Amino acid sequence: MKINAVINSEKRALDGLADIHVLHENGQDYQLDLPFRDLYQRCGVPSLRVLDLLVTASVCYVVDKTVTRSSAENGWTRELEVSVPVSEPKAWSKVAGELAETLSFLTGDEWTMSFRKVEGELFEPPKGKPLPLQVDSGLKTVCLFSGGLDSLGGAIDLLSDAKNGKVLLIGHYDGAGPRSVQVRLAAELEKAYPNHFAVEHIRVAHRPAEAAEETLRSRSLVFIALGLYGAQAAGPNTPLYMFENGFIALNVPLTPSRRGSCSTRTMHPYFLYRLRAIIAALGITNPIINPYGLKTKGECVAECKNKLLLARLADISVSCSHSSRHQHWVRTTAKNCGYCVPCICRRAALFKAGLDNGQDYGRDIIAGELTVEDQMGSANDLRAVTDFLNSSPTEADLRKRILAVARFPDLDAHTQLALRGIAELKRFLNSKAAKVASRKHA
Fold first, then answer.
1. What is the value of pTM for the model shown?
2. 230 near 142, Cβ under 8 Å?
3. Would you state the CATH architecture of domain 139-289?
4. From 3.60.21, 3.10.450, 1.10.3470, 3.30.420, which CATH number describes the 2-117 domain?
5. Integer CA distances (angstroms), 156 to 101, 144, 305, in order
6. pLDDT per residue over 89-136, tens digit each?
7. Three-state SS at 16
8. Structure letter (DSSP) for residue 291
9. Whole-angstrom distance, CA of residue 225 vs CA of residue 407
10. What is the layout of strands, in order, in the sheet containing 240-241?
């Protein structure tokens, strides 16, 4: 499908951002919903190139959400030709092929990217009533803040170390749920670390708001673009931190059917490796750092610099891939389902740190509220995890599974990480294995 981003610089929102639409070749028209006021007041416009990055990432996110996978010939892999107007098309044209390949890895589609000169300006300060800038010269560190357990632990680690200075936490949301979690966690962090950080919750969505596709594989690109926008505002070398445990980021395929693009790659080391190269080629010098990249989730929790605070706030955080599907839960007010792969890894991590509580989940798999024998679809992830563990994968097996996805630096270290992550899962599931399944996990 051919898709064209159209920017009307004559028609602007009150915040000064041009009116941006994503037009499908079949005539469908989606307006980019990016309220720019708060981001501008906090960060200004650090450079045209980082603004181009934010717009390009946002357009790709809208494309990802509004083209259904069912429309693809094979029911999954979409062919997407996207043209985006930018302020500096020469610089962007040089990385167009690399960006398309990186997006293809990230979302499992075939992307073709092209860039052209924007007519007019992407942003102009509003006339008449200017937006006062509130740029904080004391900001030294920027951190993505999703509301997940890793994100929470990472923010605590940064705030616990005075050398990081004042931290800017940037949250992205596209709906009410993630924002409410981010706001609540930020309020609790403010009690523990008053005046140590600032926080911005930024919506990137589209109008009409109804999404045709829910896989949302490109969301991490938008999130990183927002983070780099904030980091560059703080300085050309200000680091952007994002905290995602390496075992989940690696997402070792549990079954042969998950070796392809059906496995999410939102923070995969290969994706980050490719993205860093693109960012560098564009002249954006802010380093992108994942301190948890070679840690299991349990190691992240156990080594947190303020473990007592993390323990107190953990049940507020959301790590779940099924957090909006409450209808079959035992505890419908829970925030995490308890049976998807991220929830199982979360519980294993908290179990390692002595903090696990099955009552915090929609279904407690350790108490037998969902087992591998259950035929409902919600048991699929549990079956995949237990079958994978029972296959007793060796180091060589894991290396092959990792290489089946991509080859990237530090492959040996990531293979050892995968072994530790598997051991973490085994210890948790074997704690009461009879309730989970009829057999133990070798």
1. 0.94
2. yes
3. 3-Layer(aba) Sandwich (3.40)
4. 3.30.420
5. 35, 12, 7
6. 999 999 999 999 999 999 999 999 999 999 888 998 877 666 667 767
7. coil
8. T
9. 24
10. 197-203, 166-173, 139-144, 240-241, 288-289
